[in-house]
């Protein structure tokens, strides 16, 4: 109503209100509310700006649960429903994943047993790695992506790309993972599907040399390698969808910025207590050090007596 008189200043207030059968007290209450918004309206405006910033920093990925979690981490006390409402009013929304995957089976290959049995949990880092291949379309042709994900923290511990989906690609990602992580022989399971790249002599021999137990689920079954399939859904949704990569180098750069620059270090996850994979691992090691120090302190008197 107040906008009516702003847009049409020639209108007289009292006659117009009588014509519209609106009490003058009601109009002036509306005008005061517009000029001096109540505390809740002002707070909604402030929260909306914070929500916009968080949503933008995530690349438009975060929906209301993660936005709410980030606000909580920043010490902002606000209800989940309020965040949902403000995002809806601001036309902000997260994005949902789609399932994709690419591997084919070698019928003559010797298969490793399924040591995971769809239980994608681990008590500590470097106890269970899951891996798979997927394809990204570029103007130069397909770019194949191989990645290894730690089941404990869901961190991408290694990834490599190539124009060819061969055993060399998956071996390269494994070598990178072994170089960047501390792996104790006999403690780690490497889980893949029956794809010919993962049953190759090159890869299976390297796993044996490193003291890693090979495990395999079936090809084309999203449940048998669900944690790896889930990574592809996330990457395709949050990094690839909506982009047209002219070259493989362009796609590689996007993957680097997403996986190393955002996913591992900043993308919070509900299953990790709304921490990022790196934060989750850091918290694990900090808790482990605290426990070890406490155990040492309890044993100290016995050692000195």
Automatic annotation (TrEMBL):
From the Swiss-Prot or TrEMBL record, what is one GO molecular function term? nucleic acid binding
Q: Which GO terms describe its biological process?
A: DNA integration
Q: Which InterPro entries does the record match to this protein?
A: HTH-like_dom (IPR025948), Integrase_cat-core (IPR001584), RNaseH-like_sf (IPR012337), RNaseH_sf (IPR036397), Transpos_IS3 (IPR048020), Transposase_IS3/IS150/IS904 (IPR050900)
Pfam families according to UniProt: HTH_21, rve, rve_2
Query: Could you tell me which PROSITE patterns the record lists for this protein?
Result: INTEGRASE
Query: Per its database record, what is this protein's job?
Result: Involved in the transposition of the insertion sequence.
Q: Where is the Integrase catalytic domain?
A: 121-285
Species for this entry = Streptomyces candidus
Q: Please give the name of this protein.
A: Transposase InsO family protein
């Amino acid at each position: 109503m107040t906008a009516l008189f702003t847009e049409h200043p020639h209108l007289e207030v009292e006659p117009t209100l009588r014509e519209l059968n609106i009490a003058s007290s009601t109009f002036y209450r509306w005008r005061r509310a517009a000029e001096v918004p109540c505390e809740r309206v002002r707070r909604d405006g402030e929260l909306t700006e914070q929500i916009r910033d968080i949503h933008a920093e995530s690349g438009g990925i975060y929906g209301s649960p993660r936005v709410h979690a980030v606000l909580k981490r920043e010490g902002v006390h606000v209800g989940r429903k309020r965040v949902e409402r403000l995002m809806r009013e601001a036309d902000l929304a997260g994005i949902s994943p789609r399932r994709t995957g690419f591997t084919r089976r070698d019928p003559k290959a010797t298969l490793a047993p399924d040591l995971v049995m769809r239980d994608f949990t681990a008590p500590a880092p470097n106890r269970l790695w899951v891996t798979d291949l997927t394809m990204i379309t570029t103007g130069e042709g397909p770019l194949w992506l191989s990645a290894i994900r730690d089941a404990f923290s869901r961190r991408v511990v290694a990834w490599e790309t190539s124009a060819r989906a061969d055993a060399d690609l998956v071996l390269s990602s494994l070598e990178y993972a072994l170089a960047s992580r501390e792996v104790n022989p006999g403690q780690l399971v490497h889980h893949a599907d029956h794809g010919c790249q993962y049953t190759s002599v090159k890869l299976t021999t390297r796993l044996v040399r490193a003291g890693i137990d090979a495990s395999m689920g079936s090809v084309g079954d999203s449940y048998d390698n669900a944690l790896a399939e889930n990574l592809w859904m996330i990457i395709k949704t949050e990094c690839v969808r909506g982009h047209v990569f002219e070259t493989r180098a362009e796609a590689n750069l996007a993957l680097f910025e997403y996986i190393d620059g955002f996913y591992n270090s900043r993308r919070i996850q509900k299953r990790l207590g709304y921490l990022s994979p790196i934060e989750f691992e850091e918290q694990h090691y900090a808790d482990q050090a605290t426990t070890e120090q406490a155990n040492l302190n309890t044993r100290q008197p016995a050692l000195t007596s």
